[in-house]
């Protein structure tokens, strides 16, 4: 069981339940595709757990990570259908069958598309807070990282793996996927946009991109209400409302272009560019790494600041929508629903009486 460091001070345990690897070998500008498949699971050791841990870390920090769901109406030979068969039992043999049958489907697809690159496909059932099925495509460039021994691959050497150029990765959150009432986007994937073949892999898994800019914008501003606020240019810690206003202005200045969470992190946390990404991961927040911010959604999180008759009031706009602060029916009085504020007023009043 591997440890994954966490900036919040606790250690996350990554547990590998099952892992199997298949290799697809292709030829440039040719429809010839060769499959080196495994018929048994990898024997688990520290090297295998390190491999999964490294893949999981690179996957989570990938700049293209996008949340989605499966396409509708899976057919008996589809990836999703084969996955469901495994999830009915969680049996070792069913996991082997799921990986073998699904990689055979991909092989046939690639034969019809003259794909230029193959690689090692790592199928893994693992846990880190929740349970996941992960499929990662990796390529070694400088040496052998996996070797075939009898009927299965084993990790030979980790130092040569090109983790930084993970060609494709997909992770399915089983808790969300198996909960029929959940509206969570249970499937997340990354792909190297410079890789001419990576799009075939998302088609193979039948990913239905459920990008929702409104939801992602709401989650961004919710993050901004809770994450540690950064320092300003003078090194002083910002006020929360100033930070949120600056984030909103940053998004507005994109003028309809996509927001990248890494760029946002570098802008506001130059000494810790993964601050936002780590916060997202450590709190299981499902937000796309790239999305088009909805400015009207961002603005609702900013403050209302009003003053009249020697009374000054300042509160986030979302409090008005949730009726924590509201007007009476004829809109002539302000009503504030706050037990703590009422206590403060009573405390101040009691000082005068004493």
TrEMBL record:
One of its GO terms (molecular function) is single-stranded RNA binding. InterPro entries: Nucleoid_associated_NdpA. It is found in: Cytoplasm. One of its GO terms (cellular component) is cytoplasm. It comes from the Bacteria. Signal peptide: none annotated. Keywords: Cytoplasm. Belongs to the YejK family. This is Nucleoid-associated protein. It comes from Plebeiibacterium sediminum.
